[in-house]
Amino acid sequence: MRHGYGWLSAVALAVAAACASGGATAAASPEARASAPAARARTEATPSGGTQQPAGPVPPGYGTLKQDQITVALRSGPQLLIKVTPLDESVIRLAAPDTYNRLHALAESRRAAAERAAGSGAKLFLVSFFSYQPDVPFQPEDLQLSQQGRLLRPAAVLALTPNLGRQRLGQQETQQAVYAFDPAVDLNQPLTVRYGMEQSDDWSTILPVLEAERAKVEARAKG
């Protein structure tokens, strides 16, 4: 009989342990049920990878903008005009097809050299110097950018025209180069172009033009 009572005692202990475990689970389940919706909301709100990535460039061939509409112009005195055009795909794909093809070809012709100097993903800009008077001096290295309080000098100046290194312009002469800047330059944010003592913040007025055209291009691409 003592053996029988021992068996019953063992069963009773097992049942009590199971009940205690179930009670602990039951006690915790209201909190778990309360936190589950918040956890699901956090999961749904956070994309895979933690942060949402910006959309890639729109497809080429649907833009309508002229080059001057995506260009910052800067005057240095009465005799020198400087034009700065981003060559990033996110910008030039919003230009008309012929303009896009020309600017894309310019960027690709200097991309390898630019990335050797500034690193992979270097931001490229087409820079033009134009003179209104004869024998006008200019300094290609004086063209700089600033963004969010950071002054950016070009990592490389890659000539497109043969006399850029002469650093003097005849009347109504244009010299051009592709400039390579740090990949961290953000073309979705305001940007200041500087040359000597002069500067232009016109990129801030170009940004809404790009945004409006991007929406139109996406609509055209969808048919």
Q: How many whole angstroms does the radius of gyration measure?
A: 32 Å
User: Which fold name corresponds to the CATH topology of the largest domain?
Assistant: Immunoglobulin-like
Number of domains: 2
Shape: globular
Unreliable stretches (pLDDT < 50, length at least 5) are: 1-53
N- to C-terminal distance:
89 Å
Assigned CATH architecture of the largest domain = Sandwich
Classify the helix fraction into a percent range. Answer: 25-40%
Structural class: alpha+beta
The order of strands across the largest sheet is 1-2-3-9-7
Strand content: 15-25%
The major beta sheet can be summarized as: 5 strands, antiparallel
Order of helices and strands: HEEHHEEEEEEEEEH
Please tell me the overall pLDDT: 82
The helix count comes to: 4
Number of strands: 11
Q: Give the CATH class of the largest domain.
A: Mainly Beta
Q: If you had to describe this structure to a student in words, what would you say it looks like?
A:
With 223 residues, the protein is an alpha+beta fold. It folds into two domains: 53 residues; 155 residues, Sandwich (Immunoglobulin-like), CATH 2.60.40. It has four helices and eleven strands; from the N terminus they run αββααβββββββββα. Strands 1-2-3-9-7 form a five-stranded antiparallel sheet. A four-stranded antiparallel sheet has the order 6-5-10-11, with no helix packed on it. Strands 4-8 form a two-stranded antiparallel ribbon. It is globular. The chain starts with a helix and ends with a helix. The N terminus is likely disordered.
